[in-house]
Amino acid sequence: MTTAVDTLAGALTDWLPRQRWYAAKDRTPQAVRLERVTPLLHGDPALLHALVSVDGEQYQLLLGKRPSLPDDLADAAILDTPHGVVYAATHDRELMSRLLERLHGTSDGPVFETEPGARVALDLPARVLPVEQSNTSLILGDRYILKLFRRVLPGPHPDIELHRALHAVGAHHVARMLGALTTEVDGVPAALGILQEFLPDAQDGWTLATTDRAAFAGEAAELGRSVATVHSALARAFQPRNIAVDDLSDTADRLHLRFAALADGIPELAPHERALREAFDRVRAARGPFTLQRVHGDLHLGQVLRANGRWTLIDFEGEPGQPLAERNALRHPLQDVATMLRSFDYAAHHGGAADTAWAQRMRDAFCDGYAEVLDDPRGQPALLHALELDKAVYEVAYERAHRPDWVSIPLGAITRILGAAS
Ligand SMILES: Nc1ncnc2c1ncn2[C@@H]1O[C@H](COP(=O)(O)OP(=O)(O)O)[C@@H](O)[C@H]1O
Ligand SMILES: O=P(O)(O)O[C@H]1O[C@H](CO)[C@@H](O[C@H]2O[C@H](CO)[C@@H](O)[C@H](O)[C@H]2O)[C@H](O)[C@H]1O
C-alpha cells in the first residue's frame, strides 16, 4: 500500500534535482526516504522540519502545507494532494518569520541557540535570499541572515566553528555570528544553520568584478590584505592546532588522491593527467618551514562582500561536496589564495572574450596586498600553481554537475597553467 510518506518521497525524487543546492544533480535520486519529520507549526499553514535521506546522503527540508497555494507560492509546490499542497516553506514569508521563535528553546529535533552575549530578536519579518547557492539563506528584518545548510553532516561544522573562534579572537573582516541551529542525528550533533549579522548594503566581489572591471582594480589589493588578516586571525584562533612543517609531501599526496577522486569519469581531464601529477609532485621539492592551519577552504569572489568600506569574508563552510573531516583539516593558507586567483580568471571570462591581462593585474594586486601582512604568495610558485590546478580540477567536476556551459573556463585554465609551467 502506498502511504502519504511514500507519495511525498516520490514527489521529492522529481523536485530535488531541480534545486540549486541539491549536490548530486548529475544523478537522478534512486532512494529518497523521509527519516525524521518534526512538526513546527500546526494549522493552516502548517510547517514541518524534515530530514531526508537521498541515496544515503542527508538533507534538511522545511515543508509547508496549505489547502491551496497563493499565486506567489505557486512555484514552491512539491506535491498536490486532496488534503492540501506540500511546498518548499523557505519561500513562505509568513512561516519563515516564525521559524526562529519556534525553534528557540526546543529540546527535540532542530534546536536554535544564541551565542553567549548575543541578543537576538526572534520575530523579525523574513524573506528568502533570491539567489540560492549551496544552501538556502533567509534575511530576517534586514538585521540577520540565517543560512540553512542543505546537506546535514554529523560532526563539527566549519562555518560555525570558524566563525565562533574568529569572533573569540576579535577578528576583523568576518560577519558576527549570533546563533546556531543544530540537531542530533543518531546521537551525534549535526549543524543545520548559522545566524549572523546581515550587511544590508553589501555587494559581493563577483558582482563588483564583473560589473566594472576597471573599478575593481583598486579593490584587489585591499582584498589581499583582508584575506591575509583573516589568515592571521585563524592562526591565532586555532593556535594549539597549528603545525609547522618543513616539507609538503603530505600536501602533494593529498593533491594526488583528490585528483583521482575528482577526475574519475571525466574524460576531458585524462589528457592532462600526467602533467597535473607532475605539477603536484613539484610541491615535494618546495622548502619550508610551512605552517598548516585552518583556512577558509572555498574562497572565491562570491564569498567576499564589500560593505561599510571594507571586505568581509563569508561562508567558511569549505567545499560543499567534501566530507567534514577534509573541510576541517589543516591546510596551507596559500590554498585560499590559489582559489581566489582562480576566481579572477573566472571573472575575466565573464561576458565574452577573456580579459587575461586584467586577471593578471588582479592577481598581482591581490598578492601585493596579501604580502603587506603575510609572506608573498608568489614566493612559493610550485605550491601556488599546484593549488590553482587542484582547484581548477575541482571546478571542472563542479561545473559538469551544475553549469556544463562553464566547464571550458577551468579546463582552459588547466591548459594555460600547465603550458606556462613547462
Ligand atoms: N553577512 C551577510 N550580509 C549580507 N549578505 C550576506 C551575508 N552572508 C551571506 N550573504 C549573502 O548570501 C549569499 C549566500 O551566502 P553563503 O554563505 O555564500 O551561502 P552558500 O553556502 O549558499 O553559498 C552570499 O552570496 C551573499 O550575497
Ligand atoms: O559558493 P559555494 O560555496 O556554493 O561554492 C561553489 O559554487 C561556486 C559557484 O557559485 C564555485 O565557484 C566557481 O564559480 C565562481 C563564479 O560563479 C568563481 O568565482 C569561482 O572561482 C569558481 O570556483 C565554487 O567552486 C563551488 O565550491
UniProtKB/TrEMBL annotation:
Pathway the protein takes part in: Glycan biosynthesis; glycogen biosynthesis
Q: Which InterPro entries match?
A: Kinase-like_dom_sf, Mak_N_cap
Gene3D superfamilies in the record: 3.90.1200.10
Signal peptide feature range: none
EC annotation from Swiss-Prot or TrEMBL: 2.7.1.175
Maltokinase N-terminal cap domain: from which residue to which, for each copy? 15-92
Q: Which family does it belong to?
A: Belongs to the aminoglycoside phosphotransferase family.
Q: What protein name does the entry list?
A: Maltokinase
User: What organism, scientifically named, is this protein from?
Assistant: Saccharothrix texasensis
Q: What broad taxonomic lineage does this protein's source fall under? A: Bacteria, Bacillati, Actinomycetota, Actinomycetes, Pseudonocardiales
